[in-house]
Amino acid sequence: xxxxLYHCPARRRITAAVHPxxxxxxxxxxxxxxxxxxxxxxxxxxxxxxxxxxxxxPGKRKTLEDGPLELYQFTLPAHREEEILQALAGxxxxxxxxxxSVFSQPLEEYCGSEEDRGSDEKAQKVDRVEEQxxxxxxxxxxxxxxxxxxxxxxxxxxxxxLGLCVPIITHGxxxxxxxxxxxxxxxxxxxxxxxxxxxxxxDEESILRILIDEARLNAPGRGFIYSTPVDRALLDTRLRLxxxxxxxxxxxxxxxxxxxxxxxxxxxxxxxxxxxxxxxxRREPGQEIIxxxxxxxxxxxxxxxxxAGAGGATVGKVRRLRFSSPSGESQACERVILRMSQGRCExxxxxxxxxxxxxxxxxxxxxxxxxxxxxxx
Amino acid sequence: MIGGxxxxxxxxxxxxVAFIIAYLIIFQLLILRAPLEDALALTLGGSAxxxxxxxxxxxxxxxxxxxxxxxxxxxxQRVGLAVILLFGLFVGLGSTLAEPAFAALRLAGxxxxxxxxxxxxxxxxxxSYTVIxxxxxxxxxxxxxxxxxxxxxxxxxxxxxxLIPLLLILSLIASRDPKVRSVIGLAWDSGAVTTVPLVLAxxxxxxxxSGNRGEGGGFGVIMLASALPVASVLLLAMALAPSVPDPVExxxxxxxxxxxxxxxxxxxxxxxLRSAFSQSSEAGRRAFFSDGRSYEETLHxxxxxxxxxxxxxxxxxxxxxxxxxxxxxxxxxxxxxxxxNFSGEGERSGRGVFSRELQGALRAVVPISALLIALLxxxxxxxxxxxxxxxxxxFALLGMTFLTSGIHFGLGPLGDMVGxxxxxxxxxxxxxSDRIVIDRFDPELVFESISADGEREQFFFYxxxxxxxxxxxxxxxxxxxxxRYEHRLQLPPLFGPNLTAxxxxxxxxxxxxxxxGSTLAEPAxxxxxRTVEELTVGTIRGQExxxxxxxxxxxxxxxxxxxxxxxxxxxxxLGPAYLVLLLLTAVSSELMTSISWDCGGVTTGPVTVPLVLAxxxxxxxxxxxxxxxxxxxxxxxxxxxxVQLFGLIAQFRxxxxxxPDQEAQ
Lengths: 377, 665
Prior knowledge:
The structure holds 2 protein chains of 2 kinds. Chain A is an alpha+beta fold.
């Protein structure tokens, strides 16, 4: 039903990953700010836990600690970005460590209904938030889609070791290569772990290099990684749990310097343009396409997209919450994540818009993605 | 590719099963110091269990669970609430009727006597179908109620708070009636009989697609499916109670004067006779026959007629019967007959068992999958990978067959073996285990020995293999006419005559390990663990849930064994345990509440039940308590506690990420 979807070239997608304790604050804030509906996924955060060794053993033991997260995603017109981010930060306390992260990404969207469009116009009445927080710029989002069970935890450990950010992990079902195998596909676990990492944009290449190396993404069947730009963000700085020995953790200090300098380029680890013999990844501009649809329509969309030239897809389960109705109605939806090179994007978008079942497609989001790495490529 | 895939699955199961097998073997060999019988069958059985588990779990993941979830997702989108409820009712009924675990209840009722607990006997023997139906009805209503809950999105807690006290009150009323009292154990155990993974998947589907945000996320149905049958069975028992005679003394029950009333409990005279032989003692048997002559004649017949042996002794071998059940008088009378059955001793053949288990698996898997497939057909939905689903169903079938036959050959006998030996650990006196008859015994071989204070004792040397062995001579066992000496082998108590506290501790330790280990291998629980992990995106690990449940089951079985050992009413433990539970439920989160109450229903599956019952029956039979029931009920109450505690700990841990700045505010 392409006719019902409106093409909006410049929108922002806000992703808020919040500790379940602040879910109600966040939702209340969203409803008050006229956000008509959001897509909600469950996820988990991974943090390092430093604890004393048991008994009289000297030293510390480093373990990984999982925590629950709720991921809220919604899109809005670009001019409301700052206002909503500030409001959310105030409501759920994203500037305090451990509450979660929030970030916005620029995107092109085919969005569903009149009501989303309506909120564009309504948005003129902006009541400013008193408290202004400096939002971090110059970040980018690495999305790692991993096939081996448990490898998400491993990768998260590496990211924490590098002091990057608190990794956000969600689940999805992979399709693509698996379907070409016939019944033998049961030997490949369909469940994928999707790790989201927010990293300084200037350091993207060197971090990609480290992650690819450490997570052995250059071996077949491990998964792939790509980056997408982030406009503004407020990061969770609680990378480590356990006893705190200083007035502020090192991550909080880094965040404060980011804040003062207004960018992250000072954090660069590798000398720019140093002899990098052969880049592991392709600096191949492409797009990340995300299709959000009613539960059950995902298969159709995936098969259309694959036929139109997409390499593979990852389908995750989300629910759509509508704040417009008083009861907080929710609906089961699916999120199809595709990443493809520039040339194929238009064809795939057209195929999805054309082939999606009647009224099932809620939103189609296109975000540019400058770098990608996978074994097959 | 297939090799790697299969290896991964098998490795996982080996890890799951290794504990219980190693534990049993170590217990048998090192602590009880008894030899392993039939090691080959045990090994084959053990590997069959591993393969069966791997296949069955893979089958669940590939076939049954996606099918259930798809049906659950599609139903609310297509049809009204009434149809969903009706379908839930059918699924509950269908899955319970096909459930092979009900056979376990029959097994648990093996030692129920028609005179001691007539109502229980009637329920199990005459009305067993009514009992199954009432359980199935309870499960059906439970599944329907669960679907209603997901559609409307209300919390599980009010249900818990209303249902559990109701059940406890019902049990309390039942415990005041001497007739119904005996059924409480059965009722609480019957709650545990359900097909878990499918109901789970269905619930997850419905809860996903319904328009609310139920926090339970698909859990909670199994709790209902375990609780409602308790009520329905208790009510059934109360309804039947007036028509059943009161418990009476054994001799009175079998006496011809009482015959009329006895036949209200036992169907016909043949069954009554069988019960006299397989369950009663000499007094009961004597009472059955009007005069002593026909009693002795029947005994002689039993000795000479192999077919009669099988029909009268109901699965007990003649050797065991003579050695354990028969009185001294009867043993002497049957002396001349061979102990072995030459006719049908080898009927425990592999193929027979395998085909029987295959039938059981077919009954359990096929109807329910057919129901789901028919439903999807009606809704005009097809699963994404039909071949995968079909393969999954075949896997589940084969897996279940392998698993149950493996248990039959491997784990079951191993458990039985240890279960039989374990009472030695705390018993203070010796017990006859077997006997050796020495023909052409020469009294001249008897010597005398002397102790420090001058006490004399007679003994002789007997050799078995090359080792001569000194055996005390007891004149009363020597039959001078036939030149025959009967030597009874005595198993010495493990810790000397008076050290029973250590023995009891050992039994309890064993009980804990048995419960813990067998639950680790329980497939339905593992499926539940995986589902929990998936639903919480890995914040709660499946393995942790399985561990928490296993510990809970271990503790529950220890409690159950304590009840058997010290013989106090079931309600004394069940009551406080459930009170603690209600308290915990009040403070736990909705998700953890649902998960933990479901865990209680999952614990009793194809691996745990035979092993735990073997122990319960072994101890119960030894101590002449009523029956082995109730252990299962406790085994499902305690995991709920342990999982909720685990949930609270997890909640605390998760709160740690934000706790420090809470103080700063």
